[in-house]
Structure formats: structure tokens, C-alpha cells
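pasting for ref
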Amino acid sequence: MSQAPDRTGGPSAEEIAALDAHWRAANYLAVGQIYLMDNPLLTRPLTPEDIKPRLLGHWGTSPGLNLVYTHLNRVIKDRDLTALAVWGPGHGGPAVVANSWLEGSWSEVYRDVPRDADGMARLFKQFSFPGGVPSHVAPDVPGSIHEGGELGYALTHAYGAAFDHPDLFVACVIGDGEAETGPLAASWHSDKFLDPVHDGAVLPILHLNGYKIANPTVLARLPEDELDALLRGYGHDPLHVEGDDPETVHRELALALDTALDRIAVIQERARVQGAVERPSWPMIVLRTPKGWTGPREVDGLPVENTWRAHQVPLPGVREDDDHRRQLEEWMRSYRPGELFDEDGRPRPEVLRYVPEGDARLGATPYANGGRLTRDLPLPGLAGHAVEVPAPGQSTSEPTQVLGGWLEELMAATAARRDFRLVGPDETASNRLDAVYGATGKTWEEKTYPTDEHLSRDGRVMEVLSEHLCQGWLEGYLLTGRHGLFSCYEAFAHIVDSMVNQHIKWLRASRRLDWRRPIASLNYLLTSHVWRQDHNGFSHQDPGFVDHILNKSPEAVRVYLPPDANTLLAAAEHVLGSRDYVNVIISGKQPTFDWLTLEQARAHCARGAGTWAWAGTEDGTREPDVVLACAGDVPTQEVLASAGLLRRHLPELSLRVVNVVDVARLLPQGEHPHGMPDAEYDALFTRDKPVIFAYHGYPWLIHRLAYRRHGHDHLHVRGYKEEGTTTTPFDMVVRNDLDRYRLVMDVIDRVPGLGVRAVGLRQAMADARFRHHRWIREHGSDMPEVADWRWEG
């Protein structure tokens, strides 16, 4: 990062005038978006017809965001920076849209909104208007990677964008309301994971305007020395800018930005050229300006500027109230629009003096349209990592350990290009993925001790005990053109339910914008799952993340439950090559039976669901008497064990075994892109025969997915029903009625006429469950007939 020309005296009066002109123009445009649908240049007095019927948007944070955007333009142009901005106060949509229009990037992607009076009118009307654009900094806004509707994630997104982009400068504005959230509080620690050699720089700008919707903010009320000590304790070197006089604030902010960027340049030069290894104290800016600055100071006798009342729409009755409408016109004219825009509504040259050109503009940077930068991963071949399967169920493997070897090769293949990272909350080794340490270490910029293992300043495995940070880092990384995988204990993926929801909404909205390029998918590997958390107990047993995901936009979500190691490899290869999805893979890390060869696994993943003819007893002359279906590794094992019992004791029964690896296949074709046509579903599951379905998660999900299918009345699902404790692995399935003995009993109960003929077998199955309960309480382990079971087909 280069240093600017010497500015020890600060900007000149002429330079401040140009900055102020741009700032006033952005403020004018922000106000116009909130209020106006016509008369954009105020060429005549405002009338009720000029005002939107519904006033939506947020003014309070907009002047501060406009100020930062204006000053970022100057340093980008002065220093020839490659820059990206993350706007934490997402309610400041009017500000970011205004600046995008001023710099021309808005008109380039929305050609019906040119930089003239007609375009300004369209810009105003489309904001928070039916058929227009949202009030937040959404995917519709050029230059954005951060949906501002939910607060807390701006800083972690900014760091994710900076990782492995050594030439990128990321400015991140953090609102003081957002700064009260838990994820944001944890995000300050991201500086401990930023490598000055291989990563870019992040400049946090904490914007303290004092208020949220209806209350003061905590950090704004802290004494300055206490706030300064807090931020220094996080490892930052704060620069403070404060005031309500525009000229003074312009001068101080320009000096602060130059100082911060000079310090960043020194930090990077010391690390990259001189080899410095100590963790630096990165600069940041604390900016204090009034809430709703330059807006109405008082409305209806109540103070507005610099109070919580400026948060949204300061003048709520403009269409009906003549006095409010007069105040609005005075407010907008106070920016002196005639000095800012010519007679045709185009910004005057003085306004655009510091606006960068081309891709250097914040609204045009390719880093905010990450698909422009994304390259296909050099995915290694699977053959060298697949396990040999001479016959189904005769050997076991640890699926995630097998996957770890493949990921190690992928890490090595991306070592030079540095565009793949593995993130997780302190669980890489626990989840059996530690083979990756053969190719890269764990990112760590703090001091190390001789007892530490695999820590590395330039590592691409990222572990921190905050699922929020893992998720946010990876989102920022993906949105700026790279790839990654998030490995997590299944039960604790729920911590990021809301974050993944926002990302899915981002993907869905982006798909409808032809100028947004597809990005690499957000991929989850959920392991240490519900059925093998018998040692940690009830708190670690929750398979409901899948339910949350499958409630979301069908075009953007995919869920895979590979039953063995080779199917996990095939699923991983598929998701890491995909674009614009959220993919969830659920796979255990404990020894699991090997069922399919690599070739069979690939075909099975491509189908998403299919029969395992070797496990059933169909002869092809008629429909089966019953279908045993399964989804998930442990349910698959229990279904195969129950099939073995039925084959032995009821050889005359015509039995079909179906395994589902892609759960969305159960949906009708019109409900999800992976959904089966009715004819295919009927052929697989039959129209009227009993289906006993052993499912990894909550059984109600399968019913919900298949409720419109023929034969739903004959569908009986077993799964997790919130029965858990610290116990043995097999007792977990027994407690939830998912065990092999219960499945055999279900078949006997539901196949017409079988109950009377197989009463003895049913009683034997019930006795086995009783014997299990007595055994584990005496021995503390599962019965040998369970622990030593093998497929005998």
C-alpha cells in the first residue's frame, strides 16, 4: 500500500470545499430517496404529489456514511488503492445508493437510471418503492457484499474479504448500535488472524452517532479514555475524529485516513520486506458525528438532530402537513443543489473531483462482485483417496478422515493461488480432518509456545471458538471470489441459523441481478452428529439444522446425507465445484461401514436416491411387500441390520431397500429443482405399500417433504425425537425408536397379514430391546450382537 503525498498540514481549503460539495450532494440524494417521487431538482415548490405515499428509509446514519464514502474516494484516488467498503449500518441504504449514483456505477448496471434529472427522479422513486430497491445495502447495490438488514457481521465480513487478497484495502464502517451485538464484539479479535504478508488490510471505522432506534448506544456513552482503552485492548490503535462543524470534521477525517493508511503501509512493508513477525497494532478510526447531522434540528417542538428521533424519517407528515413539507424543502435547499447539479441534473465537476475511475470506484470494484474473480478449484481426483469395497458392509472407515486426506491434497493444490480455506470452531482435528495440516497450518498471529501444534502465520485453516466468526469470515471470503468449507459439530451449527438465512437471501436476490456473477457455494460439513454424541450427552444432540435450511429458497439450498466414506468423497467433490448454493453435508466421523465403491457412490449421488438391490429380497416379478428407506449413516446401518433380520427370519417377504442421499429428492418436482417427478417417486417407493423410513433427523421433516406424494398415508418415519442423554451409541437409536429391532417390529405391524404370522419374531425383537437395556446398565457398553454386527447379505 503506497503512501500519499505529504499532507502534514492537512487538506487545503480548496480540497475541503470539493469534499464538502460531494458530501452535500450525497446528503441531498439520500434525503430525496426517502421522500420524493418527482421534482428531484426542486425546480418548483414541493407539492403533496411530489411526496411518496409511504415514507420509508433511515436518515440518521446516512450523513455519516456519506462522509466516509466521500473521504474514501479521495484516498482511493490519491493513493491508487484497490479498495472495498463494508457498510455495517445497513439501514444507511440511501447513502450508499446515493454515492453509487454519483460515481456512475449505479447507472452502469441500471441503465434506465442515468446521471441526469430523469435518472435522479427514477433513483428517488425506486427507493423502498414497489418494484424498486430495498432500503438496506442489499445485493441490488453495486459495491456491496454485506446485507445490512441484520446487524453484527460487518467486521467479520470485512476480514473475510481481506484474507488472501494482499493488495486489497477494506474499509468497514461499524454503527454503534451494531457494536452492541455479540458477533461484532467477537469480531474485534479478527486482527489476530490477519497476516500482513498474504492478506490485505482492514480499517474499522467505528461510527458513533449516539443512538439506536429509541435508545442511546453503549459505546457512545463510554468516557473517551475508557473506549480508547477498550479498543487498544482489542489490539487496535484508534484515531479519534469528533465534531459537528463540517469544515473541522472534513479536515480531521482526512488527516485520520491519511495517518491510518500510512501506518498500514508501514506495517505491510515491515512484514513483507523486513520480515517482521510480531503481531502489529492495526489502526482504526473512531468517528463521532451527530445522528441525522444536517437534518431538521427540531420538528413539532421536539429535538431531532443528534437524538434517536433522527433514526428513520425525521419529518413523517410531509404529504399531509404543509409545515412539514416546508421544512423538507428548506432542508433539501440547505445543501444548495444548484451548486451541485447542473440544469440537466448532472453532478458538477467539483462534486466529482475525488471520485475514482473505472474499477477503482467503490461501486464498481470486482471484489464486491466476487464471481468476476472466482476460478474453478483444482479438485484432486478421488480415486487415490477412495476406500476399497470388495463387498458391502465388510469393512469400516472413518468418513471424515478419508475426506481429510483429499482436502490435504486440495490445500496443497491451492497453496500458490491461496483461494481455499477451511474454517471451524476448534474442531478440525476433532472432526478427523487433521490431515490438512500436512499442507497448511492454522492461522495464528499471536505468540506461540513449544507445546503448540500446527500454528502458522500464513495458515489457511482457521479455528476460533465462535461459529459467528467462522461463518462471517467464510462469507466474506466467498463473496470476494474464493472457496471454502465450514466444518462444525452438527448441534452447534444452529448458532449461525440467522447468518445463513441472510446469506441465502443474498444468493436468491443476486440470482435475479444479471450483473451479479455466481460465487462459490457456502459449504457445511456437519459431523460429530446427533447419533454419535452419546458421550457428550443431550446438549450436543440436535439434528435440526437441516430443517432450517430446507425451509429456505429451494433454488439455493441443498442437503446431502452420504451413508459412507466414498459417498462423502463424491458429495464433497460435487459441492466444492458448485456455485451460488448453500450446501449441507452431514457425515459421521466414527467408524462407519463401507457400502459403495467410488463408482457406485458417484452414481448414487447423481441419482440422489435409489434402491440397494443387494440388500433387498425382490425378485422383480412384483412390487415389494414393504420398502425400508434410510437417509444418514446411522439410519442406513440400522436399516441394513433390520433387513438382515428380515431376510433371515422372513425369507418369503419381498423387501426393497432405498437409500436417500439428497433429501430434497423427496419433494415434488415443482417444489425444488432436485424434486422427483411423481412417476419416479411412485416407482421407487410404490403408491400403496408400507414405507418404513429411518431418517437422520426429526421425522416430521420427511413427512413435510413427502406429504403430497401418493402413499403418504403408508409412510412411517423413525428419527430423532428429542430423546437423548449420556449413554451408549446403540442406546441413542433405541431411545428414539430408530433401532433395527423396532424397524423389524414396524414392518411386522404394517405389512398386511404379517402381524399374525410373525408374532413370535415381533416378541423376539421386543425382548432384544429389553435385553439391551439390562446389558448397558450392567456393562456400560453395547451388546456384542450389536457392537460386532456385520452385514451378511
